[in-house]
Design a protein that fits this description.
269 residues; 7-stranded mixed beta sheet; 10 helices; 49% helix; elongated
Length: 269
């Protein structure tokens, strides 16, 4: 009966209303005194509740030498609640459409600590409904149960990594350089093109730091970055050498480009 009360409370009923309705279903034809006595409510407080339920059609009244109350048939009650819900939704839609909507703010949330960051990443995975992109050198077993959950929902996960991995799941597509990785230091995750998490290990502060946001530009930048990493590794496999080795003129000789090459060489050692 406790579960039924909780369900009734989730659809317009208070706890007292739920107890009254269930009591009268099991014990039809009761006076206010008998109802109050059995569910342990004072008669002074129960009169208003019963009067409200009667006016709403939840309780039925039989007048005679005594006023006896009955619960509305459950199927009829559900029809009443469905109609009420639809009416409320129509009213809410009209009222919300009359509100002048302010521009949506997309704040950046910062967090510290490996456990908090992994917890946020796992939350984003479990909330995903369409597709996930990841760039990480972390052990993918950290997300094993989340990947299984996404597989049951038909959600694919595309992972780019420099780290060597033998991880395998039918819905997890891994593109890895298969480099021996001594320490993990990065995690980028995009969920449904709606949320993004960027995290890394800061060697100076000796802790993991991260930023999470729903900012559209940030989501696009990280999504494009992961896609381009995957394109490059697929080209490397097709050409059997890196794109820059095949086409040296692609280089634009910037500091960022040189730094990227140095980082890549370190990862390949």
């Amino acid at each position: 009966m406790k579960d039924t009360i909780e369900l009734l409370k989730s659809v317009y009923f208070t706890e007292n209303e739920s107890m009254i309705y269930i009591f009268l279903l099991e014990n039809p034809g009761q006076t206010v005194y008998e109802i109050a006595k059995n569910i342990r409510l004072s008669r002074s407080s129960i009169y208003g509740i019963i009067d409200k339920m009667h006016k709403e059609g939840v309780l039925l009244l039989e007048s005679g030498s005594k006023e006896l109350y009955y619960s509305q048939d459950p199927n009829e009650l559900l029809s009443i609640l469905e109609f009420k819900h639809q009416e409320h939704m129509h009213q809410l839609r009209r009222q919300l459409n009359q509100i002048k909507i302010q521009p949506i703010k997309t704040p950046y949330f910062n967090m510290n600590g490996f456990d908090a960051i992994i917890g946020k990443a796992r939350t984003l995975l479990y909330e995903s409904r369409q597709e996930v992109y990841m760039n990480t050198d972390l052990n993918l077993d950290l997300f094993d149960d989340a990947f299984d959950f996404l597989n049951r929902k038909g959600v694919d996960v595309h992972v780019f990594s420099f780290a060597k991995t033998n991880y395998s799941k039918p819905n997890v597509f891994i593109y890895s350089h298969q480099n021996e990785n001594k320490e993990s230091n990065r995690l980028m995750l995009v969920s449904d093109l709606k949320s993004v998490l960027v995290a890394n290990y800061d060697p100076f502060r000796e802790e993991w730091q991260a930023t999470s946001t729903q900012n559209h530009l940030m989501i696009s930048i990280v999504s494009e970055h992961i896609h381009h990493d995957i394109y490059l590794i697929k080209l490397k496999h097709i050409l059997n050498k890196s794109l820059f080795e095949t086409y040296p003129d692609l280089a634009i000789h910037t500091k960022a480009e040189k730094l990227g090459k140095e980082i890549l060489k370190k990862k390949e050692k």
